[in-house]
Amino acid sequence: MTVTERFLDFVKYDTQSDEETNMTPSSPGQMEFAKYLKAILLGMGLDEVDLDDNGYLMATLPANTDKDIPVIGFIAHMDTSPDMTGKHVNPQIVKDYQGGVIRLNEEYSLYPAEFPEMLDYIGEDLITTDGTTLLGADDKAGIAEIITAVDWLQRHPEVKHGKIRIAFNPDEEIGLGAHKFDVEKFGCKFAYTMDGGAVGELEYENFNAAMAKVTIKGRNVHPGYAKHKMVNSIRVAGNFMQMLPRWETPEHTEGYEGFYHLVGIQGSVEETVLTYILRDHDRARFESRKREIEHLVRKTNTEYPGCCTAEIRDQYYNMREKIEPVMEIIEYVETAMREAGVEPKVQPIRGGTDGAQLSFKGLPCPNIFAGGENFHGRFEYVPISSMEKATEVIVNICKLVASK
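Now predict its structure.
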């Protein structure tokens, strides 16, 4: 099977993660998909195929040489974002894209004026959604690429390589993908997540990340008799939101600029809950963002005593400090990309990957492009050539590590 055929097969599975279940995996579709992938890996004849009770699937392509070569790994996640449904994904293939508008359905279209990176793919075949779901290239493209690369290596025994480990994990999209990942069991000197975006992306810096849950308690009184008695938690929450810096949000930041991002509101007069994610590449500024939330809680409580509380939880940290001592693993990727005709684009991740947490668990794990664009929504698409290039990069890395 080609990488495209595998990808189109994999997106049929609804693997949307759910941060409310407190289970691992967080949704039943992920375990169903993991069992399907396990059957594929067993059918390929791989060694050490193991699926644990938490939905972590690992397997081994044995070395085909006696040389002393480091064990390396490739990782991708099975879940798709909670931001939009991944049920009944109906991919569309746009052949030989020529730069115009791509109609997804009667209501939605992909416009180059809104997504100018579309023009980078003129003449290529693109896989899009039908406008009703996300696509799932994040990260089923990565899974398809890893399996296709391993399949290629199996069919080309003349290409020498060391022991190669692969892993597919649940719940990356809710920040839990690496929490129960058994690094010791995986047994690699270093690994790569295939979870980046556009072709050429290579990332070993990411946001420091935290989630803040701000709860505001109100007091409900009949509105006809509410003067000096009612405390409307929704209005208090509105004041809280206005006190955060207006321009420090995702829609106004880029590069190394951090932000406060309001991702959810649930409210009534009695109680309103605001859910924020806090992001910054710089650790000191990251800590400052958490302190600002705590400061605004205290400020709110001076006007409405005891009404406001915040629960702040760190999610992951910038992996750069763990990668810099082993920069040869970055050099492998840069060389592998150039050998595939791809110019590396080293840039910070404006987000995070499982590789960030894994790096802090002792497995240096930078991130390589999987090829998709516009993740987490109906406008997601992936150029077929980008998935093919990612597959070639994986193969090249395996060859380079063996040759060094």
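The chain has a mean pLDDT of 96.
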